Amino acid sequence: MEELLYFFLRVCLGSSLLYVFYFSFLRKTTFFQINRIYLISATILPVLLSLFPLHYTVVVQADTTQDLVVWSNILGQTPMETELSEVSSTPKFNWVVILFAIYITGVLLFSLRLLIQSLKPIQIIFKNKRKPEGRYQIHENRHFSLPFSFFNHIFIHPDYHKQEDLESIIAHEEVHIRELHWIDLLVIEVFTLVFWFNPFSWLLEHAIKQNHEYLADSGVLSRGQSPVRYQLLLVNQLMGMQVLGFTNNLNFALGPTRLKMMKKQKTPKKKLIRFALIIPVLAVLLVAFAQPEYHKNEINDLERHESLPVTDTTDKIKIMGTVVDTEGTPLWGTTIVVKGTTIGTVVDKNGHFELEIPVGGDFALVASFVGYKTNVNELNLAENRSNSYEVAVDGKKYYTCKNEYNFVMEKSVIVIDTDFPEQVPPPPPAFSDKQISGSDDVFFVVEDLPHYPMGHYGLGQYIKTKKGEVKEKIFLEGKKLTGKATMGFTVNSNGEVTNIQVLDKTTEEAGKAATAIVAGMDKWSPGKQRGKAVPVNYAIELEF
After folding, report:
1. Which of 70, 111, 137, 402 sits most deeply, having the most CB atoms within 10 A of its CB?
2. Beta pairing, strands 55-61 & 291-297
3. What pTM was estimated for this model as a whole?
């Protein structure tokens, strides 16, 4: 729904800029054919640029994981009760639904109006069938006093038009038919039907129909018609009413401007240079409509460590160890990787792991688990040779380490950056736990952080909306909401927001309001460690 609103706004902005350019620089020129192309482009181009915008890449840093010991301890306690939790559950007046209902009602009403207006000309065409006279058919009717053309049909009232006037009238309408002006009318009618709320839609429609009359007048006068006699004919039609949007009416936009345009000398061709001024206008539209593609700069703790070469040797040493959290619970699925290499393994259900590493040099084992601080354990295999014993498997020599390398993983808090994007970022690329074909196995770290509906953008839109609701509620109570609060919460393995805590606050009101906002969050996609859902702690600062 929100993306549809942005689409409407972009089209309205584009059509308004293009119309203002026409009104300022092209309206009084006699470049009627070029103006026709410009005006119809002014309706189609904003729609195309909005549907198929240019894209540019924006690289953003991934959510930073900080070792916030104090906050981690607080998040381990029983969550506090919120006094404003009813804010998130209180039903609110949905303005988006109301606006959409109004829009649909407008579309239906204007569609009905256009349909009713079209019925009578269509009925006359079927009842009064005439043989085509070249490109058109002439229909006599007593329902419409005003002569007009409808697609390739010309309608004339026999009682209101003298025989000597018919030649000029038919010549005028023939220009509309020959130059297929009905295509322009069809495009602009659909445009005004969809964007009926945009005043520039109606201004563009008026400009297109007015330019059609300029073209028809020019075509009639080019046949040698007397300008004075032709103008008198138009004045006699002044009191006629427009039939419907799809028709070209003889008296449309009849006034001093149209009469002057018949006598106006042709605009010098050198003034065509003013069309070049449209280039900066189009550049503005391209930039305004362009949409960013957000790509996270995924720099995790494993990549921050300096890469170390792996000695190519048949001598290997087997490293064993355990991984547990601060409470001694095995962290099943923890990734163990040799720093700077693609050598790694996964901790089993009992918290144990085994890993074969080529002998020689300094190495480091890196333990990684989503929601926990990355742990690095340095080791020197040259020194450990003295603490190992030699074994042979399938003719290959191995050294098995007598000592275990144990990891104690501490929980961390992921700080959410509140610099939310204004556009919907594309979905992140999907990673899978697989191997690349070849002689050597490549180990992949598979960790997925929790994901809010529509990602960082969706979270930003939710917080923006709830801030407004909370401020409105407190304002109606005669209070003022100021200050900021840092909130901690846990996204559990089901994606639910739990363990909500106020980590820091400047005012009591800010703490209560921030708690209500966090409590009302939608369900997240849970964080996963190698496909297994795990709880992850978060912190976010909300300012009012």
Report:
1. 137
2. parallel
3. 0.52
